[in-house]
Amino acid sequence: MALIVQKYGGTSVATPEKVIEAARQILAAQADGHQVVAVVSAMGGTTDRLLHLASSVSDQPDPAQLDALLSTGEAVSAALLSMALNRHGAASRSFSGAEAGILTDDRHGRATIQQVDPRRLMEDLRRGAIPVVAGFQGEAGVAGPCTTLGRGGSDTTGVALAAALGADHCEIVTDVAGVYTADPRKVTGARRHTTLLYEEMAELAVSGAKVLAADSVDYARTHGVDLKVRSNLTACGPETWVGYRRRCAAMAAGGGSWRPAGLGEVPAIAGVATRTGLVRCVLRRIAADHAVRILRGLAERELEVELRRYGNLGTEDASDLAITLPAESVEEARALLAEADRGARLDEVHWTSNLARLSVVGLGIGQLPGSPLRLLEALRSVGAARTDLLVTSNKLSVLTGESGLAEATQSVHDTFVHEPAVHRLPTPDLWATDHKELGASVPALAAAD
Ligand SMILES: Nc1ncnc2c1ncn2[C@@H]1O[C@H](COP(=O)(O)OP(=O)(O)O)[C@@H](O)[C@H]1O
Ligand SMILES: N[C@@H](CC(=O)OP(=O)(O)O)C(=O)O
């Protein structure tokens, strides 16, 4: 019937029992007449253990060797899953990313998929076999060295294979039943979405909702791959669909009429997400050429840095510069500042660590008057620190302290998610004709699970 790519995350292959359960679900899909390509992550905790192992041998491991090491985690789970499938009589073999035809650029540790040649997988599918692909990895050009795609990269492997194989959709199998309005393990009352648009999911993912890796959502959007996020406990339970086509279908089934949010109406909230482990660096009164040198240096090193503020607070020739970066990048950033500082005065540098960014995502939320104020109020009501408010059309975000983050997130979720939602959808070309015919509105949120 359909060709489906099923990606099993680290939590879904964490133990031999879970590997066997994954095999059972794959076989059930095959028995239903579907062709399945499985993609697996390393068994839960393995990648962190391998990183730790590397650091106990070298404080600066060669990036290519680090990739060679990290890719073994996925190789283990792929081989185990194939064995479990074989044991139940299914033809199956495991593939490394390279064997599966995944070609990347050569940026070790954060490679980008450039091309996928799925012919070997297709041969196996034609023979009725079930290919199991090690996620998170590829090769830098044909017969090039092994590369890895960055944390959470197996999601991108699944989506890229689904696109290359022309699969019906890509299933992301994980330890929750879909995408919620906040991490359901941390926020009481988080509600599962039945459908989400790529744009909503992409903002949630970059804001820290780790249920899907941000790169995989971008890949899915550009290649038109529908994503189904579901629990590893059952293939028939609740789920969340991410993509235009599925939202259209859900709208058709929902009845009612769709309309964009009017001026002053509350847009639908996709969710609240947090990122921890951030550090803020403020440089006071630095000269413009110096600021440019620093920003250029950060960009050249490809450090993940957010420019939070750059502005002149009164004096003509000097401004304040505020940046936020993940704690892992601080050492490199400090070295860069010291280098850029040669000959300049940099005595007023302030570092603040243990920060978190708390974001509220919703299409059009930034254009709604008063919504930034409500975010600040929600934080104030629980005594949470708040600084560097950022407002974009689809997101409000603020820096706060890591301590008290749970309470702050709950308060912001209570404030925004329990308000009545009106659906505000972009009209990509794909929809231009469809939505008029469908003329339906969908409750974006299922009843709380
Ligand atoms: N908005 C959200 N919806 C669902 N899960 C979320 C959300 N935000 C964070 N999560 C977390 O993401 C986790 C799943 O991601 P991850 O641990 O990377 O799983 P996997 O091992 O399957 O890749 C969930 O257990 C949940 O705690
Ligand atoms: N093993 C990699 C790749 C991955 O995607 O893992 P998971 O699916 O468990 O998030 C990581 O830990 O980042």
Automatic annotation (TrEMBL):
<keyword id="KW-0220">Diaminopimelate biosynthesis</keyword>
<comment type="similarity">
    <text>Belongs to the aspartokinase family.</text>
</comment>
<keyword id="KW-0808">Transferase</keyword>
<dbReference type="InterPro" id="IPR001341">
    <property type="entry name" value="Asp_kinase"/>
</dbReference>
<keyword id="KW-0067">ATP-binding</keyword>
<protein>
    <recommendedName>
        <fullName>Aspartokinase</fullName>
        <ecNumber>2.7.2.4</ecNumber>
    </recommendedName>
</protein>
<dbReference type="InterPro" id="IPR045865">
    <property type="entry name" value="ACT-like_dom_sf"/>
</dbReference>
<dbReference type="InterPro" id="IPR041740">
    <property type="entry name" value="AKii-LysC-BS"/>
</dbReference>
<comment type="function">
    <text>Catalyzes the phosphorylation of the beta-carboxyl group of aspartic acid with ATP to yield 4-phospho-L-aspartate, which is involved in the branched biosynthetic pathway leading to the biosynthesis of amino acids lysine, threonine, isoleucine and methionine.</text>
</comment>
<keyword id="KW-0457">Lysine biosynthesis</keyword>
<dbReference type="Pfam" id="PF00696">
    <property type="entry name" value="AA_kinase"/>
</dbReference>
<comment type="pathway">
    <text>Amino-acid biosynthesis; L-methionine biosynthesis via de novo pathway; L-homoserine from L-aspartate: step 1/3.</text>
</comment>
<dbReference type="InterPro" id="IPR036393">
    <property type="entry name" value="AceGlu_kinase-like_sf"/>
</dbReference>
<keyword id="KW-0547">Nucleotide-binding</keyword>
<dbReference type="GO" id="GO:0004072">
    <property type="term" value="F:aspartate kinase activity"/>
</dbReference>
<dbReference type="InterPro" id="IPR018042">
    <property type="entry name" value="Aspartate_kinase_CS"/>
</dbReference>
<feature type="domain" description="Aspartate/glutamate/uridylate kinase">
    <location>
        <begin position="3"/>
        <end position="230"/>
    </location>
</feature>
<keyword id="KW-0418">Kinase</keyword>
<comment type="pathway">
    <text>Amino-acid biosynthesis; L-threonine biosynthesis; L-threonine from L-aspartate: step 1/5.</text>
</comment>
<dbReference type="InterPro" id="IPR005260">
    <property type="entry name" value="Asp_kin_monofn"/>
</dbReference>
<keyword id="KW-0028">Amino-acid biosynthesis</keyword>
<dbReference type="InterPro" id="IPR001048">
    <property type="entry name" value="Asp/Glu/Uridylate_kinase"/>
</dbReference>
